[in-house]
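Exercise 7. Given the components listed, write out the predicted structure of the assembled complex. Treat all entries as one system.
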Amino acid sequence: MALTTAPGRTPRTGPVGPRPTRRGAGRARYGEGLAGYVFLSPWLIGLMGITALPMLLSLWLSFTDYDILTPLSEVRWVGLANYERMFTADPSYWHAVRVTLTFALVAVPLKLAAALGVALLLNRTWRGVGLFRGLFYLPSLLGGSVALAIVWVNMFNRDGAFNSFLALFGVEGLPWVADPDWALQTLMVLAIWQFGAPMVIFLAGLKQVPVELYEAAAVDGAGVWRRFRAVTLPMLSPVIFFNLVLETIHGFQGFTAAFVLSNGTGGPVDSTLMYTLKLYISGFTDLEMGYASAMAWVFLLAIALITAVFFSTGRFWVHYSDGGDDS
Amino acid sequence: MHPATPPTAGAPAGRNHRTLLSRRRFVRGLAAVALVAPLALGAAGCGGDDDAGDGGPVKLSIFWWGGDARAKLTEDALALYTKKHPDVTFEKTWQANQGYFDKLATLTAGGNPPDLFQIDDNYLAEYAGRSTTLDLGSYRDSGKLDVSKFPKSLLEYGVVDGKLAGVAAGENTQGLVYNKTLLTKNGLPEPTTGMSWEEHIAWAEQVAKKTKVPGTQDPSADYKALWVWLRQQGKDLYKGKELGFTVEDVTKWFELWKGARDSGATPTADVIHQGNATDITKQLVVTGKAATSWVWANQMPDLKKNTKDELGVVAYPGDPSAQWARASMYWSVFKGSKHRDTAVDVINFLNNDPEAVALLGTDRGLPSNMDLRAKVSETATDPAMKQSIQVESDLAQKFGPSPQVPIKGHSKVKSELTKAAENAQYGRATPAQAAEQFVTACKAAIA
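Answer.
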């Protein structure tokens, strides 16, 4: 934008120069606003066309029997039937809800704990620390990649690398990914292992904690644990809050690994049937896109609700160092 | 289209001003491009195809699933068509099996399906039932689509609700593939066509005891094995829009395999689970985790590529007349296609042109045209391919009538079978409970 502003034009906010007339300022602002929107337009068109419209369409479809193959003009309005079926007549829906909640409740806190723990270790200046930061960050760069999930499946097969490792100690491994009692846990370990992104954010947060506070605490005789509890945690709480919200949403959306591990079925015996996977199967395999849309909207509302709960509880434990309490 | 601020009157003149103007122009240009480019591309996407298919150049879109080898063969055959019909060119898209139907459904939903596409019996009824596929009956009757050399049952297997929804791109049948090398080395007999299910399981147990390799993959989660078995009991997978079997039937089926697991004839549940993947490279006969896999006979060459051992193939146990000439996959034409006649002509070409059929070989199953099938089998050089042709031709005399094409909801029925069978395999349900669960889920799926 700076490029288009001609020199000599009255600056909107400046220490010197006459105050522009109301009209002049209005016109300038209008012009600038228009320019802004025009520059934003590719993105705006994208947002409208690729996000907002399809979302509204899916809201409408969630009240229909749309099966993806039938033209939109011929779909039948079924009212709340999809929602009713979801809540009352589809046991595998509730199964998927349970699997997803279990996954999020276990994997998210452990992932955050791992991220914070490693961030504390790496928040020092010793030789090669950059290398370690990079190495720990690497897995989360690979993020939702299919390749990683495939590697994971092969590592945790009955005759995979992990069991070969266990065999060195004379322990006979399990068929981790092919055992309905363990498949979900294996996915959790994969999710926890990818703690790099929250770790980097924790590291940045730790750098912001004033050294004086630690020094003052040390002078007052606080030990390591006390300093962590009384200084680090409160000072870090906004960052913890941010990571918690982000990772929770992320955790609920876990799809790729479960999809790859189970060949898109949620197996063995539905043990990895995550919510998003169930949604995908309903929409694309069973060709019930109306039903899948209803599922997607319930999912959106559930995540919004959980996030709202986080925000409302946040003010009891999130401290901002600038004195603001919960803004 | 003129977003930037108009030049200000009081701007200083000179060099500085000029560079500024040109910069401004440059930025304006960028904005314009950003605005217009998507519109132009969009317009290009919408335009085109305004010819009605009679005369003038035609660009036919075609979509199939498969690997590199199939892509190469298909592209060669299509190039041959273009050579003979210079007006017709192809917009070819292909991909792996996984995700193919997602994409096909999405394309259809977007109002932009391919003119000509590959489909299988899992989805033929789904598509035909929603009037997505063109009824090819009139082309068959007029002879524009020559099916006179097709086995009758193969052609009938493409009929949904009285309409010819797809033409077989090739024929296959159920095949029990076994590890010949392993058996020979241990002096064990090979399985034969016509042995009973009990004999097969007893044989598998014997193999397991002697070789430490379980004799057979447990196919209780495999719909095609269940289907053949049901037909031998005088039942079927579907009867009209209903299930062709009862809870008792499935209970018996699950119990049969529970016995086999208990006697060690099959691997453990987790290994069976791996073998349940549709991926050919995970079939237990090639991963060495069982001596037998339940596949389609035309998959022999693909299986052979994944193992050094020699493989053999016979019919599924029981009376082989329960098996049928199955369309391994079909070619279907999109009902709204602007080039229907051309698309049908291409199907005709791929099935009946001697050169094209010779090029395609048995990649999509045995050629549907019996005369050309004979030629292809004479010239086949790949031993695995020869073997699968041999079995198919031997069985062809024993084939029973083909069942109806699986109904809407079939893909769900398949996944529910896997779930129920695995519940029994992992010991989480008795055969009766699993059967009950399966039938309930099926009824909901096809309702």
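Discussion: Residues 83-315 of chain A form a domain with the MetI-like fold fold (CATH 1.10.3720.10). Chain A has one domain: 83-315.
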